[in-house]
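Tokens for chain A. Residues wanted.
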């Protein structure tokens, strides 16, 4: 019940988010009609449709993507027609009557019919629900993450419906207030006609904003902090967000944050037989959630390895909890190869089902959990950085366990290549996925999912946009090149460019496909001294395994256009990361 209440409150808070702006005109267009027969059916249709579409989306698959795309296009046409009939009813009458009939009826019912039409309002609500893309704050993120991990269910649908009903409640309040305001204004001579036209223009502006992707792009970025603090506070009060403090420990600055969960959910252990919570009792344990193609994990890894080397003889056990992000990271052979390349000798558990991830209530790569000799979680750190603080925690927990004569100083691994520390700036480009599941800022026309299609990048590229050229198949997690000569282009701002690539499929499960040759240019020229560790100065390189490749390493961050051209077909491109 607590989670349903939180979902509802999270929806209520969406009224404070810029992502609600594109749908407001559709709601206000019914503001002068009786709420019970017009506004309420519209909002109910919106809430039910959003919950249904969001549930279908958790099932994944190209059919769900196609259905959503076609539904959005149909909804935009319907609402654009509605806007035109509000703005220019005389023009609408001269349009093709079969197409305009529906929009004219909706317009007349919104303006003239006493009480309006319930069915017309529900239809507009369904269209609005198809188009609404709320900014995902912590509460909606919690619901969607749970649905993605556990699959679509009645519980997930009810939570999404509670969220949508919360948003509908806020919109209902706005609608009731707006209706009274518009009723007052219409008493002025001629004001009703101007209000109707203004609403028509606003509806068309809302449709245009959604068609241009502003609801899922620019407005989403504007809203990153608008409600997050409030939502995070609600989650913490409900005990659904990790707190930084808990039970105090006498004589220690490190509180108890919980107990080490069972580790039985691992699908396979490497470098060690399966470890249990009981076996680890009496040891200080560092659990590192990572995955081998994650750039942030790779940058933290030299410190984790150094701590294992320095303190294992003094009672520290390091466990690498490999929680895959991409499907290829679930293959034990791929993980073994990566561990060999990275020089990892401590135990690694494969958490392919994310069972241990969920047991820790974890949400991040990398994430470090520090457990004392009594099996209690005493500290955690998410992301890169604060390495000296983490090492101090290890030393304190070892001293509490009675360990003496600890080696002095702090580790300084002096990492190179992709594992070197990042040089982030306020403008550094964000991680960008090249599959339709989480892809954004695509600049090569209409995206066709799970089918081979010819693409061409539109130049000039806007910052943080990317495009494909050649014959590609865009899947949920990656883009696969179908014919030699294909390109990927990205307009980025950073010092480092990394790209997760794979050579394609192979008949032998767990092994790489045929190597793929490529050539990189930076602003149209070979990268020269700005080349990364995985390519030569002339920009040439080869994809031999599914992993992260460091392509560009400049002296300082800047804005550039990056292009990679593949001489062979079959390459799979998963994600860009920057530093």
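Reply:
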């Amino acid at each position: 019940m607590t989670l349903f209440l939180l979902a509802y409150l999270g929806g209520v808070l969406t009224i404070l988010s810029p992502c609600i702006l594109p749908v407001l005109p559709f709601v206000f267009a019914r503001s002068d009609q009786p709420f019970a027969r017009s506004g309420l059916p519209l909002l109910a249709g919106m809430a039910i449709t959003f919950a249904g579409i969001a549930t279908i989306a958790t099932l994944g698959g190209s059919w769900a993507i196609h259905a959503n795309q076609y539904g959005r296009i149909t909804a935009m046409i319907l609402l654009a027609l509605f806007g035109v009939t509000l703005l220019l009813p005389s023009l609408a009458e001269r349009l093709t009557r079969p197409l305009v009939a529906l929009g004219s009826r909706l317009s007349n019912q919104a303006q003239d019919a006493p009480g309006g039409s319930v069915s017309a309002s529900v239809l507009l609500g369904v269209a609005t629900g198809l188009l609404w893309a709320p900014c995902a704050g912590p509460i909606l993120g919690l619901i969607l993450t749970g649905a993605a991990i556990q699959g679509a269910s009645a519980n997930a649908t009810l939570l999404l419906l509670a969220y949508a009903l919360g948003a509908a409640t806020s919109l209902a309040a706005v609608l009731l207030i707006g209706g009274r305001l518009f009723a007052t204004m219409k008493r002025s001579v001629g004001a009703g006609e101007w209000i109707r036209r203004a609403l028509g223009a606003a509806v068309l502006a809302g449709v245009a904003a959604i068609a241009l992707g502003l609801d899922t792009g620019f407005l989403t970025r504007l809203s990153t902090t608008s409600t997050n603090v409030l939502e995070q506070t609600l989650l913490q009060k409900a005990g659904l967000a990790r707190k930084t403090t808990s039970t105090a420990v006498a004589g220690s600055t490190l509180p108890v944050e919980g107990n080490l969960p069972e580790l039985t959910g691992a699908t396979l252990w490497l470098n060690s037989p399966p470890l249990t919570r009981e076996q680890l009792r009496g040891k200080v344990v560092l659990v590192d959630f990572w995955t081998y193609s994650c750039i942030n994990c790779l940058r933290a890894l030299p410190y984790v390895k150094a701590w294992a080397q320095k303190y294992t003889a003094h009672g520290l056990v390091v466990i690498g909890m490999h929680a895959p992000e991409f499907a290829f990271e679930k293959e034990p052979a791929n993980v073994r190869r990566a561990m060999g390349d990275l020089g990892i000798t401590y135990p690694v558990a494969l958490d392919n089902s994310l069972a241990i991830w969920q047991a820790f209530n974890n949400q991040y790569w990398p994430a470090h959990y520090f457990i004392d000799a009594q099996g209690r979680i005493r500290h955690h750190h998410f992301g890169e950085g604060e390495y000296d603080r983490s090492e101090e925690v290890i030393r304190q927990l070892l001293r509490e366990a009675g360990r003496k004569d600890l080696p002095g100083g702090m580790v300084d691994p002096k990492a190179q290549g992709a594992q070197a520390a990042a040089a982030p700036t306020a403008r550094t480009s964000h991680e960008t996925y090249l599959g339709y599941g989480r892809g954004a800022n695509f600049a090569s026309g209409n995206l066709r999912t799970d089918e081979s299609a010819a693409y061409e990048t539109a130049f000039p590229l806007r910052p943080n946009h990317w495009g494909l050229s050649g014959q590609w198949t865009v899947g949920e997690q990656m883009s696969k090149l179908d014919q030699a000569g294909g390109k990927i282009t990205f307009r980025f701002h950073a010092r480092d460019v990394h790209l997760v690539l794979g050579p394609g499929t192979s008949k032998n499960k767990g092994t790489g496909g045929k190597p793929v040759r490529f050539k990189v240019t930076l602003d149209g020229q070979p990268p020269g001294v700005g080349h990364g560790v995985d390519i030569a100065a002339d920009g040439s390189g080869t994809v031999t395994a599914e992993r992260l490749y460091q392509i560009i390493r400049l002296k300082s961050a800047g804005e550039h256009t990056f292009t990679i051209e593949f001489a062979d077909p079959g390459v799979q491109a998963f994600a860009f990361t920057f530093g």
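The first strand starts at residue 258 and ends at 259. The chain has three domains: 2-235, 258-419, 432-578.
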